[in-house]
Every structure is written in structure tokens, then in C-alpha cells.
TrEMBL record:
Chain ranges passing through the membrane: none
One example of a Gene Ontology biological process annotation: methylation
Signal peptide from the UniProt entry: none
GO molecular-function term, one example from the UniProt record: methyltransferase activity
SUPFAM superfamilies (UniProt xref): S-adenosyl-L-methionine-dependent methyltransferases
Domain Methyltransferase type, residue spans: 53-148
The organism's taxonomic lineage, starting at the top: Bacteria, Pseudomonadati, Pseudomonadota, Alphaproteobacteria, Hyphomicrobiales
The protein's name in its UniProt record: Methyltransferase domain-containing protein
Keyword Isomerase belongs to the record: no
Alphabetized UniProt keyword annotations: Methyltransferase, Transferase
Pfam families listed in its UniProt record: Methyltransf_11
Length: 245
């Protein structure tokens, strides 16, 4: 496959086209607000008084929650349109924003300076995870925790649109028009890889796996979105992982 100069910025290309619509929908969209986000924040635990990085912060939804919970937040994202929205959402809170790329060194963050890292649904836009996990390990203090969420590898493998003729054991790039964020439906590309590459990349970077969760939706989702509530109780859409340095 011929590589394009911006192949490592597929997230930026996609989200810049519907940042405002994403920001309006994601705070209450059931898959986010009643499924992935509660699971990831529960794994992260109490952040009172901690230095926390929100990696791939998007429009600042988690940054706002973390700051209100008592954390000093250092957030970054690759998409300028998202960062503008995040700064507005977190105005007056203890959140520092930076434009940064998960696929590149986080050179504005010092060695062993961070207590906890949250990376919510952002790693699917990075082709090679090991350098990201290595950089997270560099900035984390001893005993620090990393929590991240991603698309569930087997969920996508069961979807013919994702699978096609691809090899499960390879890192595959695919795209889909997303519903739920208004018209026109945005076209979003991401990477899918085998579960072993995710967990082994984490271990190779020096992290110790502490908890692996295939989340269930919270009970409130039954009334808001009964179809997806039933579906997610049978088959997970995401994985949520906690690791310790």
C-alpha cells in the first residue's frame, strides 16, 4: 500500500470535519456516556490531587470530569478544532492543553512527572502502539497507572465491513461512515490489530497489566437506547485496560 505523508494523522483528518457535531453529541451519546466513559473512569479511580494526562483529549469531555474530580490535568490532542472546543469546555478549570500527536514523542512532558494517564478511544488512530506505550511509561511516575480504551478486536473481526479479506494477525486500516453525529455522516478511518499485539506491546514497554475489562453498559442505557443496550450486553464493542508502572 502506498503511504501518504499524513498517514499517521487519520484521526485529525476525520475529526476536523465534524468537531462541532462530535462535541454536541458525545457528552450524552450512549456508547460514550453510558458505556465506554464510565468503564474507563472507574478503572482510573480517584484522581484527587494527582497529575493526570488526558491523551487524545478530543473536545475535553474527560478533561473536564478529571479536573472537577480534583486532578491537575495536562491534556493534548492532534486536532486543533477539538482543542479549541476543549479549551472552551474547561475554561476556569486546572487543565493545560497542548497540540500533540500520540505517534510522536511527548517532549513537553518530563520523565516521571505524571501520576496517571487516560487515553480514551484514541489509540485506534495510531498504527504502531509500542512507541506510544513506551512514551507513556517514560512520563509516568513509579506506581503510576495507565488506563486506555480501544475498539474490541473480535467485535471488528466479526464485522464483514472491517474484515473483508484482511488477516486478523495483521494491523489493518479501514474506514466507515459513522452515524449518530448528524449529516453528512463523517468518514472515519482507524487501525485494527490482534489483541496479542495490544497486550504484548504494553508489556514490552514495561507496563504491568493490572485489569482488563470488556465493559457492560450502565443500567440507564436500557431506557435511552434499548437496542444497543441489549446488543452490548451480549457482545462488547470496546476493551478497557489498566496497567501499572
Amino acid at each position: 500500500m502506498t503511504r501518504r505523508p499524513d498517514d499517521n494523522q487519520i484521526g485529525r483528518r476525520a475529526y476536523s470535519t465534524f468537531a462541532d457535531r462530535y462535541d454536541a453529541a458525545a457528552p450524552t451519546k450512549p456508547h460514550n456516556a453510558l458505556y465506554e466513559r464510565p468503564a474507563s473512569l472507574a478503572l482510573l479511580g480517584d484522581v484527587t490531587g494527582l497529575d493526570v494526562v488526558d491523551a487524545g483529549c478530543g473536545s475535553g469531555i474527560c478533561s473536564q470530569k478529571l479536573a472537577r474530580a480534583g486532578a491537575k490535568v495536562r491534556a493534548f490532542d492532534i486536532t486543533p478544532e477539538m482543542l479549541e472546543l476543549a479549551r472552551k469546555r474547561c475554561a476556569g478549570l486546572d487543565v493545560e492543553f497542548h497540540e500533540g500527536d500520540l505517534a510522536k514523542p511527548l517532549d513537553w512532558l518530563a520523565i516521571a512527572s505524571i501520576d496517571a494517564i487516560l487515553c480514551s478511544l484514541a489509540l485506534d488512530y495510531v498504527e504502531d502502539l509500542k512507541p506510544v506505550f513506551t512514551e507513556f511509561h517514560r512520563i509516568a511516575r513509579a506506581g503510576g497507572r495507565l488506563v486506555f480504551s480501544m475498539g474490541h478486536p473480535m467485535r471488528d473481526w466479526g464485522d464483514a465491513r472491517a474484515r473483508g479479506n484482511a488477516d486478523y494477525f495483521a494491523t489493518n486500516r479501514w474506514g466507515l461512515h459513522w452515524g449518530g453525529f448528524g449529516e453528512p455522516n463523517p468518514y472515519v478511518e482507524s487501525y485494527r490489530r490482534p489483541l496479542q499485539d495490544i497486550l504484548n506491546g504494553l508489556a514490552d514497554a514495561g507496563w504491568r497489566l493490572d485489569r482488563f475489562v470488556e465493559p457492560l453498559p450502565v443500567a440507564e442505557m436500557a431506557a435511552v437506547d434499548p437496542r444497543h443496550f441489549a446488543e452490548l450486553n451480549r457482545s462488547p464493542a470496546f476493551i478497557c485496560v489498566r496497567a501499572i508502572k
